From TrEMBL:
Signal peptide: none annotated. This is Phosphoribosyltransferase domain-containing protein. It comes from Candidatus Magasanikbacteria bacterium RIFCSPHIGHO2_01_FULL_50_8. Belongs to the ComF/GntX family. InterPro entries: ComF/GntX_DNA_util-trans, PRTase-like, PRTase_dom.
Amino acid sequence: MKGGIFLSQFVYPASCIGCGRWFSFDADAWWCNACEQQRFVSSAAMRTINDATIFSAHRYSCEPVSRAIHQIKYGCVHVAVSVCARWLVEQLKQIEQQFSGSKLLLVPVPLHPRREATRGFNQSFLLAQQLQMVYSQCDVDATLLRRITHTLPQAQLHADKRATQLLTAFTTLKQPRADATYILIDDVVTTGSTLAACITTMRAVGATRIAGLTIATTAVAPNV
Protein backbone atom coordinates (compact mmCIF):
# COMPACT_ATOMS: atom_id res chain seq x y z
CA MET A 1 0.00 0.00 0.00
CA LYS A 2 2.79 2.42 0.93
CA GLY A 3 4.47 1.67 -2.37
CA GLY A 4 1.25 2.56 -4.19
CA ILE A 5 1.02 5.87 -2.36
CA PHE A 6 4.64 6.67 -3.18
CA LEU A 7 4.05 5.86 -6.84
CA SER A 8 0.93 8.05 -6.96
CA GLN A 9 2.93 10.96 -5.52
CA PHE A 10 5.49 10.54 -8.27
CA VAL A 11 3.11 10.00 -11.18
CA TYR A 12 0.13 12.13 -10.10
CA PRO A 13 1.29 15.13 -8.04
CA ALA A 14 -1.59 17.32 -6.91
CA SER A 15 -2.05 20.94 -7.90
CA CYS A 16 -3.74 23.20 -5.34
CA ILE A 17 -7.02 24.55 -6.73
CA GLY A 18 -6.49 27.80 -4.86
CA CYS A 19 -3.00 28.80 -6.02
CA GLY A 20 -1.81 26.17 -8.50
CA ARG A 21 1.18 25.08 -6.42
CA TRP A 22 2.19 21.45 -6.72
CA PHE A 23 2.36 19.28 -3.63
CA SER A 24 2.29 15.58 -2.78
CA PHE A 25 -0.79 13.68 -3.89
CA ASP A 26 -3.75 13.34 -1.54
CA ALA A 27 -7.16 12.54 -3.02
CA ASP A 28 -8.85 14.32 -0.10
CA ALA A 29 -6.73 17.46 -0.25
CA TRP A 30 -6.09 19.47 -3.42
CA TRP A 31 -5.88 22.49 -1.14
CA CYS A 32 -2.54 23.63 0.28
CA ASN A 33 -1.88 24.89 3.81
CA ALA A 34 -1.15 28.44 2.63
CA CYS A 35 -4.55 28.70 0.93
CA GLU A 36 -6.24 27.11 3.93
CA GLN A 37 -4.78 29.79 6.20
CA GLN A 38 -6.17 32.52 3.94
CA ARG A 39 -9.54 30.77 3.77
CA PHE A 40 -9.65 30.38 7.55
CA VAL A 41 -9.56 34.15 8.11
CA SER A 42 -12.14 34.81 5.36
CA SER A 43 -15.24 34.98 7.51
CA ALA A 44 -18.66 33.64 6.63
CA ALA A 45 -21.41 36.12 5.82
CA MET A 46 -25.18 36.40 5.80
CA ARG A 47 -27.40 38.78 3.89
CA THR A 48 -31.12 39.09 3.27
CA ILE A 49 -32.46 38.83 -0.26
CA ASN A 50 -36.19 39.09 -0.86
CA ASP A 51 -36.81 38.39 2.84
CA ALA A 52 -34.81 35.14 2.71
CA THR A 53 -31.51 34.61 4.51
CA ILE A 54 -28.59 33.85 2.22
CA PHE A 55 -25.63 32.12 3.86
CA SER A 56 -22.17 32.35 2.29
CA ALA A 57 -19.17 30.40 3.54
CA HIS A 58 -16.65 33.06 2.51
CA ARG A 59 -16.01 36.46 0.98
CA TYR A 60 -15.20 36.45 -2.73
CA SER A 61 -12.31 38.83 -2.00
CA CYS A 62 -10.36 35.87 -0.59
CA GLU A 63 -8.20 35.05 -3.61
CA PRO A 64 -7.85 31.28 -3.11
CA VAL A 65 -11.63 31.00 -2.71
CA SER A 66 -12.35 33.05 -5.85
CA ARG A 67 -9.84 30.97 -7.82
CA ALA A 68 -11.48 27.75 -6.64
CA ILE A 69 -14.88 29.07 -7.78
CA HIS A 70 -13.38 29.97 -11.15
CA GLN A 71 -12.07 26.41 -11.44
CA ILE A 72 -15.60 25.10 -10.90
CA LYS A 73 -17.43 27.57 -13.10
CA TYR A 74 -15.18 27.67 -16.12
CA GLY A 75 -13.04 24.56 -15.86
CA CYS A 76 -15.50 22.02 -14.46
CA VAL A 77 -12.77 20.82 -12.10
CA HIS A 78 -14.74 18.24 -10.13
CA VAL A 79 -12.23 18.04 -7.31
CA ALA A 80 -12.81 21.78 -6.74
CA VAL A 81 -16.53 21.06 -6.35
CA SER A 82 -15.72 18.44 -3.71
CA VAL A 83 -13.45 20.79 -1.78
CA CYS A 84 -15.88 23.72 -1.87
CA ALA A 85 -18.88 21.60 -0.87
CA ARG A 86 -17.20 20.74 2.42
CA TRP A 87 -16.93 24.44 3.22
CA LEU A 88 -20.73 24.75 3.14
CA VAL A 89 -21.58 22.17 5.78
CA GLU A 90 -21.44 24.55 8.76
CA GLN A 91 -23.80 27.02 7.06
CA LEU A 92 -26.12 24.16 6.10
CA LYS A 93 -26.28 23.13 9.76
CA GLN A 94 -27.29 26.70 10.66
CA ILE A 95 -30.13 26.54 8.14
CA GLU A 96 -31.18 23.17 9.56
CA GLN A 97 -31.41 24.71 13.03
CA GLN A 98 -33.35 27.72 11.75
CA PHE A 99 -35.94 25.50 10.04
CA SER A 100 -35.97 22.66 12.55
CA GLY A 101 -38.24 19.73 11.75
CA SER A 102 -38.55 20.29 8.01
CA LYS A 103 -37.04 18.34 5.13
CA LEU A 104 -33.97 20.06 3.65
CA LEU A 105 -34.06 20.17 -0.15
CA LEU A 106 -31.16 21.66 -2.11
CA VAL A 107 -32.31 23.53 -5.22
CA PRO A 108 -29.47 24.30 -7.63
CA VAL A 109 -29.99 27.60 -9.44
CA PRO A 110 -30.76 26.43 -12.99
CA LEU A 111 -29.01 27.56 -16.15
CA HIS A 112 -30.94 28.05 -19.36
CA PRO A 113 -30.74 24.76 -21.32
CA ARG A 114 -28.87 26.49 -24.13
CA ARG A 115 -26.18 27.80 -21.78
CA GLU A 116 -25.90 24.50 -19.96
CA ALA A 117 -25.48 22.70 -23.27
CA THR A 118 -22.73 25.12 -24.28
CA ARG A 119 -20.93 24.87 -20.95
CA GLY A 120 -21.55 21.15 -20.58
CA PHE A 121 -22.63 21.30 -16.94
CA ASN A 122 -24.36 23.39 -14.30
CA GLN A 123 -21.90 24.17 -11.53
CA SER A 124 -24.71 24.76 -9.02
CA PHE A 125 -26.11 21.28 -9.67
CA LEU A 126 -22.66 19.70 -9.23
CA LEU A 127 -22.22 21.61 -5.98
CA ALA A 128 -25.64 20.52 -4.67
CA GLN A 129 -24.90 16.89 -5.55
CA GLN A 130 -21.58 16.96 -3.75
CA LEU A 131 -23.03 18.72 -0.72
CA GLN A 132 -25.68 16.02 -0.40
CA MET A 133 -22.91 13.42 -0.46
CA VAL A 134 -21.07 15.03 2.45
CA TYR A 135 -24.23 15.93 4.42
CA SER A 136 -26.77 13.16 3.97
CA GLN A 137 -29.54 14.89 5.97
CA CYS A 138 -30.49 16.80 2.82
CA ASP A 139 -31.62 15.83 -0.68
CA VAL A 140 -31.27 17.51 -4.07
CA ASP A 141 -34.35 18.77 -5.92
CA ALA A 142 -33.31 19.84 -9.41
CA THR A 143 -36.84 19.61 -10.83
CA LEU A 144 -38.56 22.45 -8.99
CA LEU A 145 -37.11 25.41 -10.90
CA ARG A 146 -36.42 25.86 -14.59
CA ARG A 147 -34.84 28.77 -16.40
CA ILE A 148 -36.97 29.68 -19.42
CA THR A 149 -35.37 32.92 -20.59
CA HIS A 150 -31.95 32.93 -22.19
CA THR A 151 -30.23 36.09 -20.99
CA LEU A 152 -26.81 37.65 -21.27
CA PRO A 153 -24.29 36.40 -18.69
CA GLN A 154 -24.90 38.30 -15.44
CA ALA A 155 -21.26 39.36 -15.16
CA GLN A 156 -21.69 41.43 -18.34
CA LEU A 157 -24.61 43.50 -17.02
CA HIS A 158 -25.08 46.44 -14.67
CA ALA A 159 -27.01 45.64 -11.49
CA ASP A 160 -30.27 47.29 -12.57
CA LYS A 161 -30.27 45.47 -15.92
CA ARG A 162 -29.60 42.17 -14.16
CA ALA A 163 -32.74 42.58 -12.09
CA THR A 164 -34.86 43.63 -15.09
CA GLN A 165 -33.89 40.75 -17.36
CA LEU A 166 -34.43 38.20 -14.58
CA LEU A 167 -38.02 39.20 -13.75
CA THR A 168 -39.49 36.41 -15.88
CA ALA A 169 -36.42 34.21 -16.25
CA PHE A 170 -37.62 31.29 -14.09
CA THR A 171 -40.66 29.09 -13.74
CA THR A 172 -41.63 26.18 -11.49
CA LEU A 173 -42.29 22.67 -12.78
CA LYS A 174 -44.27 21.39 -9.79
CA GLN A 175 -45.85 22.40 -6.51
CA PRO A 176 -43.45 22.74 -3.58
CA ARG A 177 -43.68 20.36 -0.65
CA ALA A 178 -45.40 21.75 2.43
CA ASP A 179 -42.95 20.01 4.78
CA ALA A 180 -39.77 21.18 3.04
CA THR A 181 -37.22 23.94 3.43
CA TYR A 182 -35.86 24.85 0.01
CA ILE A 183 -32.22 25.92 -0.06
CA LEU A 184 -31.08 27.62 -3.25
CA ILE A 185 -27.52 26.59 -4.13
CA ASP A 186 -25.16 28.76 -6.18
CA ASP A 187 -21.43 29.35 -6.39
CA VAL A 188 -21.35 33.08 -5.64
CA VAL A 189 -23.86 35.84 -4.91
CA THR A 190 -23.12 39.33 -6.24
CA THR A 191 -26.07 41.72 -6.64
CA GLY A 192 -28.52 39.05 -5.51
CA SER A 193 -30.78 39.51 -8.55
CA THR A 194 -30.70 35.86 -9.60
CA LEU A 195 -31.54 34.54 -6.15
CA ALA A 196 -34.23 37.21 -5.71
CA ALA A 197 -35.90 36.10 -8.95
CA CYS A 198 -35.76 32.43 -7.90
CA ILE A 199 -37.27 33.23 -4.50
CA THR A 200 -40.09 35.27 -6.05
CA THR A 201 -40.89 32.44 -8.47
CA MET A 202 -40.93 29.82 -5.71
CA ARG A 203 -43.08 31.91 -3.39
CA ALA A 204 -45.62 32.46 -6.17
CA VAL A 205 -46.47 28.74 -6.06
CA GLY A 206 -46.56 28.43 -2.30
CA ALA A 207 -43.02 27.81 -1.03
CA THR A 208 -42.78 29.39 2.41
CA ARG A 209 -39.47 28.19 3.84
CA ILE A 210 -36.64 29.37 1.58
CA ALA A 211 -32.96 30.07 2.23
CA GLY A 212 -29.87 30.37 0.08
CA LEU A 213 -26.38 28.92 0.33
CA THR A 214 -23.33 29.97 -1.69
CA ILE A 215 -19.61 29.41 -1.53
CA ALA A 216 -18.93 33.14 -1.49
CA THR A 217 -20.45 36.60 -1.55
CA THR A 218 -18.93 39.69 -3.11
CA ALA A 219 -20.13 41.89 -0.26
CA VAL A 220 -22.53 42.07 2.62
CA ALA A 221 -25.00 44.19 0.70
CA PRO A 222 -28.22 45.87 1.81
CA ASN A 223 -31.44 43.90 1.53
CA VAL A 224 -32.49 43.10 -2.04
